[in-house]
Design brief:
One of its GO terms (biological process) is mismatch repair. This is DNA mismatch repair protein MutL. Belongs to the DNA mismatch repair MutL/HexB family. The longest helix has 18 residues. This protein has ten helices and 17 strands. The N and C termini lie far apart (about 60 Å). It has about 325 residues and is α+β, with helices and mostly antiparallel strands. The mean pLDDT is about 90. The structure holds adenosine-5'-diphosphate and magnesium ion.
Length: about 325
Amino acid sequence: AVLADQIAAGEVVERPASVVKELVENALDAKAAQITIETKEAGLEMIRVTDDGEGIEADDVETAFKRHATSKITSREDLFRVATLGFRGEALPSIASVSDVVLMTAHAGDETGTTIHIKGGKIVSNDASQLRNGTQITVSDLFFNTPARLKYLSSLATELSHVSDIVNRLALSHSDVAFVLKNNGKTLLKTAGNGNQKQTFSAIYGVKSAAKMIYFNAKDLDFEVDGMVSYPELTRSNRNGISLMINGRYIRNFKLTKAVLNGYGSKLMVGRFPYAVINIRLDPLLCDVNVHPTKQEVRISKEPQLEKLISEGIFARLSQENL
Ligand code: ADP
Ligand code: MG
C-alpha cells in the first residue's frame, strides 16, 4: 500500500507547494475561518497548516490516511457535482508516504483529541491527546525516502515563490477566510478574511495595485462572471497576475487566460500582462474537475461561449472607462 501511495504521491506531490495546496484545501473543506501556514526552508524542512475547522473524529483519523478514503463524496453521482475542493482521497496518504506527518485534531463534541504520527506511510503512533479546536498537520522531511524527487527540486527561493503563489490564489478565491503565511518566522501574507476580495488582492499585490483595479461582471444563460481587472497601465511581465476561479475553485486554464488578454484588445503593450481576478459561476455539471489529480485543470463544456463572455465583458468595462 505504501508503494501505491508513493506512486500516487508522484502525481499529487511534486514539491512543497503541492503539499501546501492539498493541506489548505482540506482546511477549507473543513470550513475553517482561520488558516495559518508555516514553513521552514520553503517547506523542505517543515510545513505546518493549522485550521479552526470541523476536525476529524477519533475513529476516522487512521482512515483519512488510507487511499480513496474521502469523507466528501459518497456516490458516483457526486463525482459530477463536486462542491468540495478535495474528493479523491489521495492527498493525505500520498503526503504521508513521502514524509513524516504529525496530525493533531479534534471533532466538535468529542471529549478528547487525537494525535497520529505517520512516517513513510507507516503509523508510528496514534493516541488520544489534548482537545483542540480544529486540525493541525505538520509535514517534515518531505521526500526523505524518495531521493530522486528531492533532487529535482529547485532553489529555496523558487520553491518559496511556488508556495506563496498557491497560498495567494487560495486566499484570493476564499476572501472570507483569514490566511497567514510565514516562512522561517517571517510573515509573507496576512488577509483579513472579511469577504472583501479587493482587500485580499491588496494584501497580496499591494494597496497601489488594488487602487488600479476595476470591477466588472457579465452573464449569459450558462455562466455568471464577476471580478476585477486592472487598468491597462498596471501590468507585469508574466501572466501570474491573472487568477481564475470556478465556483470558488482556483484553476489554471490557458484559453480562459487568453480570453482575459483578448478583453484588452490593443490596449496592452507587447509583452505586458494585466492583473485580473475572474470568478466564474456555473452549473457544476458543465465542468469536469476530475481530469487530473491536482484538480487544477478542468474541462468546461461550452468553453468558447465562456471565453467570449469574459473577453466581451472585460472589453465593455474597459471601454466605459475611456481608457
Ligand atoms: P480528500 O480531500 O480528497 O477527501 P484527503 O486525503 O485530502 O482526501 O483527506 C482525507 C480525509 O481526511 C478528508 O476527506 C477529510 O475527511 C479528512 N481531513 C483531512 N484534512 C482535514 C482537516 N484539515 N480538517 C478536517 N478533516 C480533514
Ligand atoms: Mg484533500
